Amino acid sequence: METDNGLEHKFARFGDGLSVSDGTMIEGYASLFGQTDQGGDVVRKGAYEASLVALQKVGQRVKMLWQHDPAQPIGVWDEVREDDQGLWVKGRLLDSTQKGREAAALIAAGALDGLSIGYRTLKASKTEKGQRLLTELELWEVSLVTFPMLPSARVAAKGDSLATEATLRELAATLHCARLELARR
User: Fold this and answer.
1) Partner of 28 for a Cys bridge, out of 11, 14, 78, 123, CB 3.0 to 4.6 A?
2) Distance between alpha carbon 73 and the CA centroid of its chain, in Å?
3) What's phi and psi for 93, nearest 5 deg?
């Protein structure tokens, strides 16, 4: 988890249901319910419901960003909904933007397969295991990212091994800590 003016970020790999078509259409899970991420957080089913309804009422959408940078929208989420597994998203990368084209190429090559949510926690509690159970979230954006925080929702490429996955997890944790340290300065 990372915070910036109260906005938190939660990372997840696309998941097994990832679909990329026409080089610009993407769909998959941005968050999975009931799974503990590397920050010790668990999102409960229904946590996004009120936020999605509120956005729809005012005619707004969840934003699609590049690496959580609000200056770099790279597409449009046409559909964002909760199902039994988690927060499912479907959208279009804008190939009229440089980052949109780059993201499409990176996804096609298998170099980018992470999604991350940007949100504010409205309701949470601690579990007996010391985890933070997120029960109501205000969803702001879903970004395409390099290093997600929820490794269990990842797509394995041919040739991936457990050793490679462990190394990538360590690298992701190290980079996450470095980003937090830089943000403090």
Assistant:
1) 14
2) 15
3) -75, 140
The reported pTM is 0.73
- Burial-class residue 114 by CB neighbours within 10 Å (0-12, 13-18, 19+): buried
**Residues, the chain, total?**
185
How far apart (Å, rounded) are the C-alpha atoms in residues 144 and 185? 25
In the numeric block, the tokens 């960003």 are attached to 65
As to burial, measured by CB atoms within 10 angstroms (0-12 exposed, 13-18 middle, 19+ buried), residue 120 is: middle
| Per-position b or e across 135-155, b if 16+ CB within 10 A of its CB | bbbbbbbbbbbebbbbbebbe
Residues 45-92 pLDDT 10s = 999 999 999 999 999 999 999 988 999 999 999 999 999 999 999 999
Say how far apart CA 26 and CA 44 lie, in whole Å. Answer: 24
Q: Which residue has 């989420």 as its token pair?
A: 77
Q: DSSP letter at 87?
A: E
Contacts of 9 (CB under 8 A, 6+ apart): 1, 2, 3, 68, 116, 117, 118, 119, 143
The string of pLDDT tens digits covering residues 109-151 is: 888 888 889 999 999 999 889 999 999 999 999 988 887 666 5
Q: Residue 177 has what pLDDT?
A: 55
Provide CB contacts within 8 A for 66, sequence distance 6+.
Answer: 72, 73, 74, 99, 103, 143, 144
Q: How many C-beta atoms lie closer than 10 Å to residue 156's C-beta?
A: 13
